[in-house]
Design goal:
The complex is a heterodimer.
Chain A: E1 4-18, E2 26-40, E3 44-48, H1 55-62, E4 69-74, E5 77-78, H2 84-88, E6 91-94, H3 98-101, H4 108-118, H5 124-137, H6 154-166, E7 172-176, H7 184-200, E8 204-209, H8 212-218, E9 221-226, E10 229-235, H9 236-241, H10 246-254, E11 325-326, H11 331-336
Parallel strand pairs in A: 3-8, 3-9, 6-7, 7-8
Antiparallel strand pairs in A: 1-2, 1-4, 4-5, 9-10, 10-11
Helix pairs in contact in A: 4-5, 4-6, 5-6, 6-7
Chain B: E1 18-31, E2 34-47, E3 51-55, H1 62-70, E4 77-87, E5 93-95, H2 101-107, E6 112-115, H3 119-122, H4 129-140, H5 146-159, H6 165-168, H7 178-190, E7 196-200, H8 208-225, E8 228-233, H9 236-242, E9 245-250, E10 253-259, H10 260-265, H11 270-277, H12 317-321, E11 326-330, E12 333-336
Parallel strand pairs in B: 3-8, 3-9, 6-7, 7-8
Antiparallel strand pairs in B: 1-2, 1-4, 4-5, 9-10, 10-12, 11-12
Chain lengths: 337, 341
């Protein structure tokens, strides 16, 4: 489609998973399983899931850092057969830990000027001026350009990383757990910064997080990922207020509720099964799902024989709503429950 | 400034008997030949059978305080002053920051235990689960036979909700999931039935779904054995789930302490208000989050008498000249602020 900045089409990725023993056959572990979605222009797209579900692998595939099967188109261009510079001017990343993203021996100004040098944009004076402008845009003083990362606080470093990502005016920013390493009060500042910068310039964002609350706050649409599959995509309101997939419901019920103080263990029944002997703790997988089954088969409490087939991400919950997709065959019956 | 009564902590209106009284505890840090203050004269009482939450941002001193109680401070940190009086099971009182190594060995694991953030770094990767959990039992109960130790470990593993406790004895930590490892840690911390358990960010490394289970398990242990728990976290929503009372720390000092319900509904300190408001919630979608400007001061930075003054909207000259007084504004509700009446 014309107004999609990123199109991820049937992307699959494996890690080599060698068993112990030198004569064993090399195995492979599927990390991404036929992932497809699109991000529209100027949209904040959230990706949420537990650790190990493949969120960061997907981000690396989109950034062209790892090989994958399938196709990823950024602004209509694929990594294969396109000049890397063309793509990197359109897509930039912000990672979790700003200290490990910044070179400790370079000044902030030098780090932020680097993309401009690499792409040969402007003279030295122009580059330095745009660095100063960018520092002010991300809420820092222009004088920070001569400082080193160690002289800044965590929140300021993350502002520098965001500024560096914006230097080339990309059309897509991939933010992988960009506020997870920050203190609560500083994370709020960074979330506000994302919102104000977005109002001034046009870019789309893939915002990856394990925190559904932050995703809901910031994003227009959210995709929920489980074990390498996208199990539900919808607008933030769809996901948060009308979740359709049992995994999304579990995630939502597990968010600590500020108003609900747990008295005698009554609240959060679904998410907190586990300490009573006899009941199945649901962080214990029933073992791997049979080949070809729904990815959530092993953990789903409602799983039945129909779930032994892989579920397509196709069914809409609400027939009038063409933004909300879920990959669960029981979803129709769950809805009536 | 209101006079602090002798022996009074921040919870002195609470009727329950305190099992630990921390008084004016100060912890210093050696850094590049200078001494800075990491924790500045904090006082609190911890009562028997309650869950106390300690909340604050990184560098506020919440972990350092609890390492000092366990006698586990790294070399650069040292206790400068103050006391932490703990009441042992047999009724005699000891000062946790002054006891000898021999006394410490009697206390740690048996009377006070601790759970850390990342279970994989706390568990010995080369030791089977059964031996790791049994170790504490053997050390503190030298009279027990191997079978008795074995039975207690199996019972404890079942108690914390691990499936197949017998099979678990022969497993290694790497064979378990993150949530199961944290349950093993909890089993190790509870197997000797200590009076006090300190849980330092026990759920931070876990997924949300597992976090909810672990929190419920802690509440269950608290209720079943009447075990006192100190839960340290940076996440106010985690604290509000299971804690009876909350202590909010900022830059090495206590800002506010109150029952959980009071903290969540009627916070008095500007910092507590800011912390609660800056959590993204459903109602705030589409509008700016009210955040606290500035950043947490590092230990080397010069601090104002009220450490929150540079970030506080109410701050006035008095905040930069005088330390905020300790004010009691309600049942068990203590605030350190010039502007709270």
């Amino acid at each position: 489609m014309q107004d999609d900045i990123l199109v991820v089409d049937h992307v699959t990725n494996y890690y080599a998973d060698n068993k112990l023993g030198i004569f064993s056959k090399p195995g492979r572990k599927q990390v991404l399983n036929d992932v497809s979605f699109a991000i529209h222009k100027d949209e904040f797209f959230g990706l949420v899931g537990e650790s190990g579900c493949g969120k960061s692998t997907l981000a690396q595939a989109i950034l062209g850092l790892i090989p994958f099967e399938g196709s990823i188109k950024i602004d209509g261009m694929e990594y294969a057969g396109t000049d890397r510079k063309m793509i990197s001017s359109r897509i930039q990343a912000v990672f979790q830990d700003p200290m490990s993203s910044l070179d400790p021996r370079r000044t902030i100004g030098a780090t932020m000027r680097e993309p401009l040098i690499a792409h040969g944009i402007g003279s030295k004076q122009e580059q330095e001026r745009s660095v100063r402008e960018m520092l002010e845009r991300v809420g820092l003083d222009a004088a920070y350009s001569d400082r080193y990362p160690r002289e800044l606080s965590g929140g300021q470093r993350q502002r520098v990383c965001i500024g560096a990502a914006l230097m080339l005016e990309p059309k897509l920013i991939v933010a992988d757990e960009a506020v997870s390493a920050l203190d609560v009060s500083v994370a709020a500042q960074i979330l506000n910064l994302f919102r104000t910068i977005d109002a001034k310039s046009e870019f789309a964002m893939l915002f990856i997080s394990h925190n559904l609350g932050i995703e809901y706050y910031l994003c227009d649409r959210i995709a929920v990922m489980y074990s390498g599959n996208i199990v539900e995509i919808g607008t933030a309101d769809d996901i948060y207020k009308h979740p359709a997939h049992p995994y999304t419901k579990l995630l939502l019920s597990a968010i600590p509720d500020m108003e609900k103080h747990e008295e005698n263990g009554s609240a959060n029944e679904q998410a907190t099964v586990g300490h009573d002997a006899g009941s199945r703790p649901n962080d214990v997988r029933k073992g791997p799902a049979p080949a070809g089954a729904c990815c959530y088969y092993a953990r789903c409490q409602k799983a039945c024989d129909r779930c032994l087939r892989r579920q397509e991400l196709a069914r809409t919950v609400d027939r009038d709503n063409d933004e909300h997709f879920v990959s669960c065959c029981l979803q129709a019956s769950l809805e009536s429950v | 400034m209101e006079l602090v009564k002798a022996g009074s902590g921040d919870f002195d209106t609470i009727k329950a008997r305190p099992i630990m009284r921390i008084k004016d505890l100060t912890i210093g840090i050696h850094e590049s030949k200078q001494v800075y203050t990491a924790v500045d004269r904090i006082s609190m009482d911890i009562c028997a059978g309650e869950i106390v939450g300690v909340v604050g941002e990184s560098g506020c001193g919440k972990t350092v305080t609890n390492l000092a109680l366990m006698g586990l401070l790294p070399k650069v940190l040292f206790v400068q002053g103050g006391s932490a009086e703990f009441e042992c099971e047999d009724g005699h009182h000891i000062d946790l920051v002054k006891i000898s190594g021999k006394e410490r060995r009697e206390i740690n694991g048996n009377e006070i235990s601790m759970i850390y953030q990342e279970p994989l770094t706390s568990l010995d990767p080369l030791m089977k689960i059964g031996r790791q959990v049994g170790e504490a039992v053997k050390i503190h109960n030298s009279g027990l036979s191997d079978e008795e130790v074995h039975d207690r470990v199996v019972k404890e593993l079942g108690e914390v909700g691990l499936p197949d406790p017998h099979g678990m004895l022969e497993m290694y930590p790497h064979q378990l999931s993150g949530g199961m490892r944290q349950r093993v840690m909890i089993a190790m911390a509870t197997v000797c039935r200590p009076r006090l358990m300190i849980a330092d960010e026990p759920t931070t490394a876990l997924d949300v779904t597992v976090q909810a289970q672990v929190l419920k398990l802690l509440k269950h242990i608290n209720q079943k054995y009447g075990m006192t728990i100190v839960l340290i976290s940076h996440d106010l929503s985690v604290i509000s789930q299971i804690c009876d009372r909350v202590v909010v720390m900022y830059a090495g000092r206590i800002a506010e302490a109150a029952p959980t319900q009071v903290i969540m509904t009627a916070p008095a300190h500007e910092y507590t208000k800011g912390l609660i408001n800056s959590l993204p919630s459903m109602e705030r979608k589409g509008s700016d989050l009210p955040c606290i400007p500035g950043h947490v001061p590092s230990t080397e930075e010069k601090r104002e008498p009220c450490p929150f003054a540079p970030r506080c909207a109410l701050a006035d000259d008095i905040c930069r000249q005088q330390e905020p007084p300790r004010r009691m504004i309600g049942e068990g509700h203590v605030v350190y602020c010039h502007f709270v009446k």
